[in-house]
Amino acid sequence: MDNVRKSLVLGIIVGAVVAFVLSLIGAQIVQSTSTPEFCASCHEMKVMYETWKVGPHGPDYENGRGVERAKCTDCHLPHGTNVVNYLIAKGKSGAKDFVVHITGAGRVDWQKKLDEPEKYVYVKSCLHCHKNLTDAPGLSEDARESHKEAFQENKTPNCLECHDYVGHGDDFSEKLEGFFKK
Prior knowledge:
The protein has helices at residues 2-32, 36-39, 46-54, 72-76, 83-103, 110-115, 123-129, 141-151, 172-181. With 182 residues, the chain is mainly α. It folds into two domains: 1-32; 42-181, no CATH class.
């Protein structure tokens, strides 16, 4: 019985160490696949990366004065949810993008995606960073009133109704079309 107990304890210790190492590896993979540069590593995403960089959330907006720095995953993956849902959404999205990139199957209709932004951008992610829109400094009175109205009755506003251009700039559609004509 003593050997059985020792084997059990050893098995638990080895299992815990293996689980810990796998968790570290998994966390590193999630972190390294969450950068804009990683997202841009596929040809299909180059125009998204270039337009994001100069768009309102990118580092090059108006000589580095972007309103908020947001990465691809900040807008295109769910926030305010548990880590399991986040990882499932990340896995599904990444797997789909990978299959399309490798096989060319299911050619992406980017114009249709632009017409249905709520399917590809999580509005709750907007609110994750932009919590205090009715009291934000520098807002015009019109913008302040519009945001108050959008937040009335404790409803979650659909930011994309007014700000559908924000991730990639208001000329995104033209740049997208030009990129894929090459």
